[in-house]
Amino acid sequence: MNGHPLLEAREVTVRFGGLVAVDAVSAAFAAGELVGIIGPNGAGKTTFFNALSGVVAPTDGELFAQGVRLTGAPAHRYAHHGIARTFQTPRVFADLSVAANIDFGLQFAGRGRSASWLLKDEESILNLIGLATQAALPAGAITPSQQRLLEIGMALATRPKLLLLDEVAAGLTEAEINQMAQLIRRLRDELDLTVIWIEHAVTTLLNYVERVIVLHQGKKIADGLPSEVVRNAEVVEAYLGDEMVEPA
Amino acid sequence: MKESTHRDLIVLFGLTGWALAVPHYGSDFVVSLTLSCLMYAALASSWALFCGATRYISLATSAFFGVGAYASALTLDQLPWLAVVGLGAAVAALVALVMGLAVLHLRGTYFAVLTFGMTELIRHAITYWEKQVTGTVGRVLSVVPERDTVYLTVLALAVGAVAVAIAVRGSRFGLALAGIGADEQRAQTLGVNTRLVKTGGFVLTAAFAGAVGAAMSVRWTYLDPVVVFNPFIGFQTVLIALIGGAATLWGPLLAALVFSLLAETLRLQLPQLYMMSLGLLLILCVLYLPGGLASLRWATFRQWRDDIRDRWRELTTPLKKEAAS
To answer: How much is the pTM?
Structure first.
């Protein structure tokens, strides 16, 4: 580590035609952080993720991974700098087996990278995400909640330093959400991963993260401890409103 | 090595042996039939290697074939035969590199139409150059290699195309191509340098088409841009690969065999019937056999039989009820 944050966004703006989806957002993420990003629908959360993972090039602003400028670089370079992501709707390779989906990341961004024993090989990753018994099935044949786990597994197979999770708990049952949260905690605690987690279900998220960023109409309106953020007047007005949440 | 790779190599070995024997006992007709089959096997297998896996439908095969043929026509009396074929491959690869950098960021119809447009551009550019600069329209090839030399060269290219396809299937490169075909952006976020992989695959495909063009050009004693850049060569390659099964290893080869037989038996006597059967086969494949001929199994036939029977029952049940009431 060279004193630089793992990933840093400086005044990142993403514009689609006349629409400003992300408006000059700056944020830095250090090693081992567990950060949540919340915001109402259309706040620009997913677009911000797309910028952070190189899927969309920012219209303005800069992105750095450990001090290396990555602005405008293709997504595979972000992956090679240890930035992995999942997609809101699982995008697994449906025709390939569950095991082959994991193998994909290991063959490309994860290749030749030092890995903890938890991410040693295909088998250990399958065990970690709890899909070992489904290994031989085609990824298109497992349940949607299993596909969400597989998405995480595919991202882990790139042996990342930072993991971007886009609504991984959406559509899961209460029990499944808790399992998912346990898994994410474990990734952070045991792999020392930085995790940035977008979730629509604010209550769940605030229970697990240590820092939360609030986006509203593309702008960052708050960044801090969950207990402080929920008391922030602007946040309450913009987002939480009547579904005000008990801080954990 | 995987078991399937083993099996594929053995099949390839057997087919090669059989094809090697053809010039020794076959009549001129049989040799020429096998040669055209081998040519399409080489073109379609190498096309499917990139385009089948990634679903980037390229219509530029005629361009690569054509520049290969032209390179061969220009250098045939100065260079040794293998150098001529190699040069054809190299020139086509270079053209593909330039073309690929220009159009490989496009997908679907845009990619297909642009590759076709660039093929036409190359054809007209060469026609113009021939007329204005060299003052000829076509070229006469006076010294051509023996029949068996050409045959063995095209055989080697066909075997090479299938062998490379087998090797690619088991490699990281093949996995990257398949990932691009399934979800390009996802593959990229998992660390695949998609631009590099796509350009590499496109150039590889083109090199084979260029080499085949260089080797086949000597079959015409006279060539001009209209003959060697015939778009039909490109279309037929795509049709063969799709009908055979572009995502499969043996499909293109299987369909190349079917097509050359059809072509030779029908084209001379009943040219319209040949084109019609091509069209019909394509429609039937797209509707009922999206995986191509190579995906045919006994279960496919059983499925069709059951479907037809169920359909028949649906249609006849109301009639029976009516009759009963």
So the answer is: 0.89
